[in-house]
Amino acid sequence: MDEFGMGSHSINSAYGPVTNGRGFKALSVGGSSGGSALAVAAKLAHIGIGTDTGGSIRLPAAYMSVLGFKPSYDILRKPDENDPTCLTSSSFARVQEAKNRRRVAVLGSKYVVVATDEIQDSDASQNLPSDWPWRKLRSQLVAQRKFTRRVGVPLEYNIAEMHPLVRWAWTATLSYLETIGCEIVPISLPSTRHALSSYYVLAPAEASSNLAKYDGVRYGAVRESPSDDVGGTLYSKHRSDNFGPEVKRRILLGTYSLSAGAMDNYFIQAQKIRRMVQQDFDDVFRMPNPFKQDAEVNMNGVDFIIAPTAPSPPPRLRYLQRSTPVENYMNDVFTVPASLAGLPSMSVPAPRHPDHAWRPEVAVGMQIIGQYGDDYSVMYLAQNYMTNFHPTAGMKRVQTHKILT
């Protein structure tokens, strides 16, 4: 995996990059939990566990054609306080303690997943209000045959830089969902265009704070001798020698954004954007956010949002080595908004183009996003999608879908 989970391609490891293939044709496996996805895809394990800060489970799942699930932030039972995991960005990722994996296991034998608590009745989680009425209301609407699953298509995600195969797969997915009775609805999430910038201010800032303890005194590699330090400083040489270049880059970025002269212009502004992104999602979902007491059910809202997991198929490592850090960060453009809002999200393998023989170079993932706390519904749709989907479903309509063309 990427060191401290910092990366989108699993190339920032002290042990070398994780790759799909070798040599000139080696492909990215996504990141930061690329090793988990590769192990599952290679049938070395049935389940891979990781954390998803800005897409670290979903991106590898998309590139390796497996399932990747990120639960609602902090909705599940927290691990023991002695858990050894170091999270670089505490407000984005949690490691959840697994008590019952049956609801995940029903999805199939090839997937990578964050360890989860029992999700079948996640509305009853200790972190959700006990009087949350959505599940009961939805059951009544289904019984009255007044409930049609509405799928939102965010227009802001239809970017010009999207790879043609990704756009085709997105259109084919929407066409298939129409054939099984879903209503496809165009939606607008205007603040999500700033989500990536906000994330790469907030996440490095939290990483700068959380990694400060790795000084060789109590945490981190053992300090050999105080004489190793330069200029009388206690930590600088030790941290420089033991952190990789990407980790040092993000620590410096985060430290700057938290400094007195830059905090208002960067960190505070990024927090405001994060709240705007959360509000955009709340405005389009039919189910209200359980933590907003005055929120009401929006019957004109959507139940799910469908979008690509990544804007392109897996790139070759030789291209990534020539790319700038900012160009690599752009790979998270579709996964970061759900992370900022703490929403459940799942990446599933997308349909395959009938005119292109499938190979790892054209792997595409589709992302299902649900309202906070609606994890079970996201998993249910993924199960239905994986069970009944046929790669050529809806092909007659795929080139003329009214929303994406």
From TrEMBL:
Listed PANTHER family: GLUTAMYL-TRNA(GLN) AMIDOTRANSFERASE SUBUNIT A, MITOCHONDRIAL (PTHR11895:SF7), TRANSAMIDASE (PTHR11895)
Name of the encoding gene: HER2
Residues in Amidase domain copies: 1-378
Pfam families referenced in this protein's UniProt entry, alphabetically: Amidase
Cited InterPro entries: Amidase (IPR000120), Amidase_dom (IPR023631), AS_sf (IPR036928)
The protein's name: Trimeric GatFAB AmidoTransferase(AdT) complex subunit
Gene3D superfamilies documented for this protein: Amidase signature (AS) domain
SUPFAM superfamilies found in the cross-reference section: Amidase signature (AS) enzymes
Lineage: Eukaryota, Fungi, Dikarya, Ascomycota, Pezizomycotina
